[in-house]
Design goal:
Distance between the termini: 80 Å
Pfam families: HTH_21, HTH_Tnp_1
Radius of gyration: 33 Å
GO molecular function: DNA binding; transposase activity
Number of strands: 0
GO biological process, one term: DNA transposition
Number of domains: 3
CATH class of the largest domain: Mainly Alpha
Helix content: 55-70%
Order of helices and strands: HHHHHHHHHH
CATH superfamily of the largest domain: Winged helix-like DNA-binding domain superfamily/Winged helix DNA-binding domain
Low-confidence stretches: none
Number of helices: 10
Strand content: under 5%
CATH topology of the largest domain: Arc Repressor Mutant, subunit A
Shape: rod-shaped
InterPro entries: Homeodomain-like_sf (IPR009057), HTH-like_dom (IPR025948), RD_transcriptional_regulator (IPR051839), Transposase_8 (IPR002514), WH-like_DNA-bd_sf (IPR036388)
Protein name: Transposase and inactivated derivatives
Length: 195
């Protein structure tokens, strides 16, 4: 349930709302469409039944104020609609969100669309160019096998800094700390020159 700010309504507005309820529309639906709380609408129906329904007070309501009230109600409806649309979109996968953004990007700023659907602009752009490049992150076992292979090829000459560079050049980037840890845990050391 959303909190509605306190507002003053004209007698005509109240009577129109009560009439809609009497015509068979539910309290919840009428209240949501008018941007007000359900309990207020129930109070108006009860007051109208006892003949005590009146306007917002003795001061007259200008047409600008009535238009403002109508626009506030419409704004609440649109916010609710956007919130429910966002919930539906968020239930879907990122590809559906990106496709929806792709349709709307001509009408609204890309950053705003991404913010509304909780995705990143970079993620959208990567999706647009066909996905992220095929980066391969090796598991520890695979990286260890690669380290042992390189270590044998170069006859044990490289320590962890040069090993990191060599493995990165072969197309398998990994952090120096990770390679250093694996080399230390499996006693793979660089060969030292004898003096």
């Amino acid at each position: 349930m959303f909190k509605v700010p306190k507002q003053s309504y004209t007698a005509e507005f109240k009577m129109a709302a009560v009439q809609r309820v009497k015509e068979g529309q539910g309290f919840a639906m009428v209240a949501r469409e008018l941007g007000m709380s359900e309990q207020t609408l129930r109070n108006w129906v009860k007051a109208e039944a006892s003949g005590k329904l009146n306007g917002a007070g003795a001061k007259p309501v200008t047409p600008e104020q009535m238009e403002l009230s109508r626009l506030r109600a419409e704004n609440k409806r649109l916010q609710w609609s956007l919130r429910s649309q966002k919930k539906r979109e968020l239930r879907e996968g990122p590809a559906v969100r990106y496709a929806w953004i792709d349709q709307q990007v001509g009408q609204y700023p890309l950053s705003s669309l991404c913010w509304v659907l909780s995705v990143s602009v970079n993620g959208y752009r990567a999706w647009k160019r066909g996905g992220t490049p095929g980066r391969t992150r090796l598991t520890d076992t695979q990286l260890l096998t690669l380290i042992r292979t390189v270590h044998a090829e170069i006859k044990g000459a490289y320590g962890s800094p040069r090993m990191t560079e060599e493995i990165g050049d072969r197309g398998f980037p990994a952090s120096k700390d990770r390679e250093e840890r694996l080399m230390r845990e499996h006693a793979i050391r660089a060969r030292h020159k004898r003096r």
